[in-house]
Structures are given as C-alpha cells and as structure tokens.
Amino acid sequence: MAPLTLLWILFAVIVVVVSALDLFVITHRHSPVGVASALRWTGLWVTVALGFGALVYLLHPRGHELAMLYVAGYLTEYSLSVDNLFVFILIFSLMGVHEEAQPKLIKLGIYLSIVLRILFILFGIALIHQFHWLIYLFGLLLIWTAWKMLVADENEQVRPENNIFHKLASKFLPIHEVPPESRRLAIRHGGRWYVTPLFLVFLVIGSTDILFALDSIPAIMGISQDPFVVLTSNIFAVLGLNSLFFALRGVMGMFKFLKHGVSVILFFIGAKMIAGACHPVEEWFKQHAFVSLVVIATVLIVSIILSIWHTRTYPTPPNHE
Questions:
Q1: Where are the chain's structural domains?
Q2: How many CB atoms lie within 10 A of CB 2?
Q3: pTM across the whole model
Q4: How would DSSP label each residue in 73-140?
Q5: 81-117: per-residue pLDDT in tens?
C-alpha cells in the first residue's frame, strides 16, 4: 500500500473514532461541561492532531518536510479557530442563547465549517494551479485581514441584527418562541412548521463560518498547497473546537493578546506569499520549511505568555452593582 494512501486511511479512522467518542460523551452528559473536563478533551484533540503529524513524519517519503508544514498549518488554523470561537461566544451572549442549547449550535457550526473548508480548499488549490498569480492576491488579502483584525473593536465585530440571513429569515419565515433551554431549530405547532429563534442564531453562525473560511484558506495556502497537508491540518484544527469552546468560555479573559498574535501570523504568511514572487526567496522557504513553523509557534507562545502575564498583573476588577 502506498504511504499516502495509508495516511489517508489512518486519518479517516482517527477522525471517525475520536469524533464519535467526543460526540457520544457530549451528547450523553447530564451536567454542564466544566473547564477542567473541556481542557482534558482539548488536550486529547491536540495530542491526536500532533500525533498524526508524527505519523506523517514516519510514513511519508517526504515526511521531514510535510510534517513541519502540517504542524505549521495546524497551529495557524487552530489559532484562527480560537478567534472564531471568541466571536461565537459573543454571538451567543448578544442573542441570549441558553447554555444548554449552545453545544448543539457549536457542533452544527463545526460540521458546516468542515464542509465549507473542504469546498474552498479544493476550489482554491485548483485556482492557484491554474492561475498562480492568485497566490500574491491571497497574500495581500491576508495582510489586509491582519490589519483589520488588529484595529477592529471586538464589540463591533458582530452585529447579529445586521446579518443579511438573519434579516431575511426574520422577515419571511414564521417564527415560534420556545423555552430558552430548547435545542430545537424548528417545531410543528397547530399543523404548521415554524423555525425557532435558535434557527436564527444558526444562520448567523453559518454566515460567520463562511467569512472565517474565506479568511483561513489563504492562510493555509501560504504555508502549503499540498492537498493532503491542507485538508488534514484544517480538519483536525476544526474538529477540536467543540471541547475548546467550553474551555474558552470559562477562561477567555486570559487571552487578551491572542488576537494580536494571530494578526502577526497572518501578516507573516501574507508577506511570505508576496515575497515568493522572487524565486530565490520562494526556494529558500521551500528548503527551510521549519522556519514557518518556528515563527508561528514562537508568536503563539509569546502572545499566550503575555496574555497570562497581563491577566495576573492587571486583574479585571469585579463588577459592583
């Protein structure tokens, strides 16, 4: 069996087994998911993802190169996904989503994100192979995204009531109120089908997923255009979001500078893509794949350390009524 075929099979088996286990545990819990439990599951997903990188290193003929590109891509997409989850948490807060209904929406959002990313990745790779100059356009897009992320006010990034899908659904679909803890997206009442307010939240999350996918695909393309590296690193990054959501919901205040770190990573990848117009620079990065991994890992570690230091040095004072 060809090494690449074996790796694809191992990837599929790992994803199905761990996803099923994760879904079973979350679905059959009778108590809220605590931060400690969520962190353990997050650690499991990260370990599985990095372990798969070790398999790539050991089994693939170009394992030394592809394993580093895979890990660099995974860290980039994972850090972007953390920023996505902050936005989801904000959406839930603004739209008053009950805690019991949040796990279902996150899981649906993850599945939708996987489908969108696979479609965008395959489409993006085909486009770049056909029109190589698009790689420089993607680079400019990443630099602009980095700047937008850096200067945007977090409280102004999400306005659910201005979302076009939310507006259209609110105007044209019959809506029926349900108890806050309900997980139903649609119900049948009086012989007629209605959507619930939770369906409107899902539309906002789904449309936000599209924007995030459009931002993240150029980022992974700047690291590698190998379909295996791009798809596996993306899917592993997204699949770990379910448990990460519950962890971040409890400790999100500790990551003040993570957004700044992600901005630096996007700027670095975008600049590297544009610099690739100079053939010696492009070849140097191809021959030194570890450089991207070192830069991305260093920026993430520094931003997390600075965030923890700032939280401990300047704790947020409690609110007084």
A1: 3-313
A2: 8
A3: 0.73
A4: HHHHHHHHHHHHHHHHHHHHHHTT--GGGHHHHHHHHHHHHHHHHHHHHHHHHHHHHH-TTHHHHHHH
A5: 776 777 777 777 777 777 777 777 877 877 887 888 8
